[in-house]
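To whoever is on call:

I kicked off a structure prediction for a single chain this morning and the downstream step that reads the tokens threw a length-mismatch warning. I double-checked the sequence; it's 751 residues and nothing unusual in it as far as I can see. Pasting both halves so you can look.
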Amino acid sequence: MTGEEDLSPVRILFVFAWLVVGGEETEVRLLAANLDPHRFKIDVVACFRKAGMPDQTHEQLKALGVHVDTAPYDLSFDDTVSYLADKVAGYDLVVSCQNVADIYPALERLKLRPPLIEHGGLVSEAEAGPKHFTSRYVGVCRTITEAAAARMPGRQHQAVEIPSMVDLREFGGGQRDAVRSSLRVDENDVLIGWVGRLDPKKNAEDFINAAASVQRNCRNARFVVIGGPDAFHPEYAVALRQLANALGLGETLSFLGDRADIPDLLSAMDIFVWLSRGEGMPHVIAEAGAASLPVIATPDNGVLQQIEDGVSGMLVPHGNPDAVAAGIQRLIDAPSARNSLGRQLRSKVERSYSASAVVPLWEKLFYEVLRERKAGQPKKIFKSFLQGGFECSTHRLRQRDGEPQGRRLDLIQSTQHDNHTYQDYLRLQDFGIRTVRDGFRWHLIDRAGGYDWSSVRSMLRAASISGTQVIWDLLHYGWPDDLDIWSPKFVERFAKFAGACAAVVQDETDVVPFYCPVNEISFFAWGGGDAAYLNPFARRRGFELKVQLARAAIAAMDAIRDVDVRARFVHCDPVINVVADPARPWDAGAAEGHRLAQFQGWDLIEGKIWPQIGGQPNYLDIIGINYYFNNQWIHGGSPIDVGHRQYKPLRNIIIETYARYGRPMLIAETGIEGDRRASWIAYVAGEASAAIAAGVPLEGVCLYPVLNHPGWDDDRDCQNGLLVSSVDSNFRSVSDEKFAATVERQFSRFA
């Protein structure tokens, strides 16, 4: 547990069109290796895979502890957009690489979008796609940055240049002799290399033609081409091998394919050649510079920033193998020139392209973009931001041996709240709490069609006299014994009851009423329909029960609005996070399915799913999220708590829920038992504040329960409230002084 200090790292999602072996993949790998993991957490999602694409980057990122999500590989474009919309909302920042076509349609679906940084390694990428959601466009060189700026009128300054980096720690490992020996390159041979994906725009054929020319005059020249086929142009790799064979280079030039040991291979070289046209800033030139190699290159975009001709490298015209061959021969003949060019390029890399120079630019950018987020502006729907909830469960427990039926709970009665409602409301005002959650007890009121309001009239009057705003729960797990929850009559009778409740509320007060028609539809459905923990103790009927409860909530809202059109509705359900154990990555799909199921109750109310039951957007009024220490867990495993490496900060859960619905929100339940109460509420208050800073107009936080109470299953004294369950001379004492002091201190910021 973190206590009151905010230690959550910034969660950054890098979205790739595909993962191959290239500059942008290397950039995220080096960021993951060099950013402080206590301040930044990087995840990666890739949207597309084509046969022939290498796994190298996947493996390298996973070795660094980066979660690489490849679920979109099996999805259509539309499904990938939906998947990304669900995923990106849970991150503080999103970095889109390679002009990902799916990212803008995904962001369009969200009511609150995480800041988007686009990263471009090609001018064509900068010139493509919309930019209205893009907080920053990062180009790896000047020409790319300028191209992006031209697409961002009025905010050209938001196109910035951050060059590709190299980690100098990966170079100078003393592997030169061993690598040359493995390549069968003699000590006196001159090894000239080319590194890159075998993509036609990289013009490797010019290197091969130059190699043939040099080889005729210099028998100790050896050549290597390092890199695998481009999945979109596999025929190009075949053509290059055929060309090399046709030129008689079979014994002189080697194709090594994709390799993960590029720094060691570069250390074995004497000269490096790069001949691209239409690319950005070649990452591999910076890598060659890190290895202190002399570089021969074409004057392509960012190359002109990396290399000063004749000082830190040699520039040759595009499409001119003879000029390349002449440059290679000149460097073969002048070892001192090779050394001078290599030293100068190494110096340039240290100053401008090393991780120590580039990582701080990324860090500055991340924090700068985060600071630009506009804070949420709550509408102050409720009388107080800090709220208190009176546990009002009324369900029957499972029948035990010797019992005619399971014992019915009535937490309002067991805490004596029904007899001390007025005093309880006034006591909470000592803490600034003027909004509470409380409940109508359906089983006491509904007497086989007739209504006895004696259990709630005094509570309604206590609220009115004390000036307390109440969100009334109408169904908190319990219903009359003569009613079958699975039957159509259940919906009809609950709607009639809800309308009658509204009439009584209207009779007692003229303030705008607030109701929670059915508490925790999703949890109720799981507990009662799948886990057999709650009444009706069923299994494998969870979704059926969820639909029935949503249908009942919709009918109840209609009945209430027939009485009072001003009525507001708070729909409370737990928010959760379910993750796969890294040792069982095959569980990822099931884990995500369970996580997404948390939204089904609200989706049913809104009519997003099963609209045939009558759901409509106007029913989803206010969303209440319930959050406890065990709301996150490993699929098929145990709960995970604050501080666990897979724990998702509460702020991100709040943000992703608001991004999905865009409705007014409050934390409708949160609390914990025992000595951890103070640190827990400090954590929740900090996360609520962070969510507001990120743009969520959060309306409140409800301490739940606000009174200690007997445990559901064992009648233990649950020490989880702000106040004790016992009443002494019409007064309830504070349950935990440290907790009470922390509540007052933490929530003063929201006053």
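Update from on-call: the warning came from a stale cache, not from the record. Cleared it. Sanity check on the structure: The chain has a mean pLDDT of 96.
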